[in-house]
Amino acid sequence: MRFLGLIRSTRSICFLTALTTWLSGDLWSQQFDLVIRRGRIVDGTGAAAVKGDIAIRDRRIVDVGTFTGQGRVEIDAHDRVIAPGFIDVHTHSEDITELPVAENFIRMGVTTIVTGNCGGSKLEIGAFLKSIEQTGTALNVATLIGHNPVRSQVMGGSFARPPTAAELDQMKALVDRGMRDGAVGLSTGLIYLPGTFATTEEIIALAQRASACGGIYASHMRYENDRIMEALNEVLRIAREARIPVEVSHIKLSGPAAWEMAGDVLKLLDGARAEGIKVTQDQYLYTASSTSLGTPIPAEAREGGRQRFRE
Ligand SMILES: [Zn+2]
Known about the structure:
By secondary structure, the protein is α/β, with parallel strands linked by helices. It has two domains: 28-84, Urease, subunit C, domain 1 (Roll), CATH 2.30.40; 86-310, Metal-dependent hydrolases (TIM Barrel), CATH 3.20.20. 36% of the residues lie in helices and 20% in strands. Strands 1, 2, 3, 4 and 5 form a five-stranded mixed beta sheet that branches. The chain has a five-stranded parallel beta sheet with strand order 9-10-11-12-13. A hairpin with an 8-residue loop joins strand 1 (32-41) and strand 2 (50-57). The N and C termini lie far apart (89 Å). It binds zinc ion. Zinc ion is lined by residues 118, 189, 220, 249-250.
């Protein structure tokens, strides 16, 4: 009976509160727009999860912890994790404006993506970012400027050679423009056309331009098989000589001959970090590999473009 009494008195308080609110002429206004209650809050700093509530007003988090204020909308998280949106650093979502709701990302909790990886991006970074804004894309989008459209634009159909000095200058200018238009760095795809024909020196020259604008260098490396140490050393040389933070894209040991090399790879990366190089890496969430079917064919056979390759 005491228990029932408690409920009754709680109800009375609720009634009084409602009446007071009503009298103030503001029945529906609440303290917060949204309160998510009883979650395990992971704040993204690396700290352990804490149990608590999150209050949001005007699209911003205004309180974290436990509090009495009510939300216009209340969600009980039932002890599930509440975290900031995830960042997917490796996508090929150049077509994001065709699917601006981006449910595949949003439903997984991804709220920011990086696109333009593996040397492939739009050449016109400014126009790309503007089209994302105009479409009202649900995600935050950052893009790298890809080496391949830059090299294709400048060197035309002839790829299996180093650029002339004038061509290299034009490529640098395009990277410069892409960075100034909002790219967050330069990407290469050194198994793809025409990037596969680029020398390390060419990439260093372009990475220097990205570095000057505070960008990073992300690479789908030349080798991901038992020659991976050569490829990693190339990335690290670019980091040193262009003074740029580097990201090894989808790091992997491809093929049985490379499977024993994880220890060597990690040792090399640890050593580079100890030396002061900012090197990071990302990884597929699956144990297979993924690329286009033409890639296993020698680059020389693909040099003239898709039509010539078919012939
Ligand atoms: Zn790739």
